[in-house]
Amino acid sequence: MSYDLVVGLETHVELLTKTKIFCGCKNSFGSEPNTNCCPICIGLPGTLPKLNREVVNFAIKAGLALNCKINLNSKMDRKNYVYPDLSKAYQISQFYTPICKNGYVELSSGKRIRIHQIHMEEDAGKLVHKSGDVYVDYNRGGVPLLEIVTEPDISSSEEAREYVEKLQMIMRYIGVSDCKMQEGSMRCDVNVSVKPEGSRVLGTRTEIKNMNSITFMTKAIDYEYKRHVAVIESGEKVVQQTLRYVESTNSTESMRSKEDAQDYRYFGDPDLVEINLDDLYIEQIRNTLPELPTNRFKRYTNKFGIPEKDALLIVKYKNVSDFFEAASAGLKNPKAVSNFIIGQIFRNIETETEREKFEILVSPKQLHELVKLIEDGKINMNLAKKTFSKMLESGKDVTDFISEDDMKGISDNEIEALCREAVSKNEAAAKDYLSGKEKAIKAILGYVMKATKGKGDALKIEKKLVEIINQ
Amino acid sequence: MISRDEMLNLANLSKLYLSEDEIEDAMKEMDGMIDFANQIKEMSPNSHETPNINGLSNALRDDEVIESYPQNKILENVNGGKDGYFYIKKYN
């Protein structure tokens, strides 16, 4: 029997606010331990949390970008559990009225992964384990999080990968989170179950906690799928439990049993008042949203004719996409800009992190000028590529490498004369061409290109040569 | 009446260790608390709702940094901690 995989994801993203969710302490990664703390975020009794407006705004932005309905009335709840990373023994979260509901992320196949809800909450502190002892740093305690919960709509580890990558991309575009999985500013809890192919009844699920790498997440899903199937095939039942993924063995192991939902004893936090929004406020936030990556992708492929693979690479990194937008604005052929980015710029910056930062010496304006020269027929592609390499190394303008004289180009008459000369001097090659050896034309073309010092347009010249030979 | 298992679960959630005689007493006390909570529940149909009696909403704060406390002040109540951290000796 074959089995369907059913996956739902709960993704935590840390927000890029200046301060924490309920106090004015700095929200920053990598500070000395317990230096971004105050009585509110270390949970001392008698302190009063006050919600950061920017957290609400970011949550609304994220909700709109993920096609959610924004709840006009929402409030914070307490989730009770005792653990050293949570000094006040409850986490302030949202349970009864999350700020966003019912959205979706569309995959490239057109399939929609529904978002069940998005809620705001505070992050817990960080535990550092050293030889059995525990060291606690509350700098992260109170850092604002959004938890984005999908419906169990994901049916392969590849879909899970695409969903998380899309989510990451969207959050970065709208500027609410940097989603750095390696730094923990994006973490996924994965719910996995299997069911007989086509069945509508969901199987028992297991939850893999705190995945901080997309690759490991897909491996963990594949592992759990096989494990569930093996358990069922052997006539036993899958046990509902919380698991940890072990990278070294590519397998999962059971974690200490966690509380059930009722054990959290959720109730409305009496320290925090309701959040009441109106449509006007939400529309104002909608107006601040940038063009989303999915839209850009569609525009690049449909309107500019950029191949999907290339368009995806550009859209993936917001800085690259913004660079492309600035460089290609007003050009007849934006595709040329994408070719320079992928063919030449990306050759030198290969890692994800470098591409994300996209710190290069050439400005969008400088690339724009270069492509404009090609469009105006002032330089040919070969020369442009060579020049662009030099520009990338030095950060200098195109005019620093190509003189006015070079840019005059060559008149059609000159080209015709050169072509005739080339054909007469390469009679053998011309005959070969006529007898069907199409490649022979390249030798004659090379001759002309050399004579033009690379300024001629190779396509145009080849056409002319064919014309002359056939006369 | 709360069951012994429920009592033990509650103690476990709060990380409390109860000896045999304490379990009996705690169950009685818990029953009293539940009765009291039920009394309140009768007055408010949605027990999880805690509407703000002043009718306040949107008490929001601007995203502006306020200086945090010095590390030694934060760790003052735990005898200065260890290496800048709150320190917990090996636990289970």
Find the count of extended strands of chain B (DSSP E, 2+ residues): 2
The averaged pLDDT of chain B comes out at 86
DSSP summary, beta strand count of chain A: 17
Radius of gyration of chain A, whole Å:
30 Å
Mean pLDDT of chain A: 91
The chain pair forming the largest interface, with residue counts per chain, is: A-B, 48 and 37 residues
For the record, the CATH class of the domain at 1-48 in chain B is Mainly Alpha
Order of helices and strands of chain B: HHEHE
Stretches of chain A where pLDDT is under 50 for at least 5 consecutive residues are none
- Sheet with most strands of chain B: none
Radius of gyration of chain B: 21 Å
- Estimate percent helicity of chain B: 40-55%
CATH architecture of the domain at 1-48 in chain B: Orthogonal Bundle
- State the secondary-structure class of chain A: alpha+beta
Reading side by side through the largest sheet of chain A, how are the strands ordered?
3-7-8-11-1-12-13-14-15
User: Structural class, from secondary structure content of chain B?
Assistant: mainly alpha
Low-confidence stretches of chain B: none
Number of helices, counting only DSSP H or I runs of 4 residues or more of chain A: 16
Terminal Cα span of chain B: 31 Å
CATH topology of the domain at 1-48 in chain B: Histone, subunit A
Q: Helices and strands in order, then pairings?
A:
The complex is a heterodimer of chains A (471) and B (92).
Chain A: E1 3-14, E2 51-52, H1 53-65, E3 69-70, E4 73-74, E5 77-80, E6 90-93, E7 100-106, E8 112-122, E9 126-130, E10 133-137, E11 144-150, H2 157-173, E12 186-196, E13 206-211, H3 214-233, E14 242-246, E15 251-254, E16 267-268, E17 275-276, H4 279-286, H5 293-303, H6 308-316, H7 318-328, H8 334-348, H9 352-357, H10 364-375, H11 381-394, H12 404-407, H13 412-425, H14 427-434, H15 441-451, H16 458-470
Parallel strand pairs in A: 13-14
Antiparallel strand pairs in A: 1-11, 1-12, 3-7, 4-17, 5-6, 5-16, 7-8, 8-11, 9-10, 12-13, 14-15
Chain B: H1 4-13, H2 20-43, E1 60-61, H3 71-74, E2 86-88
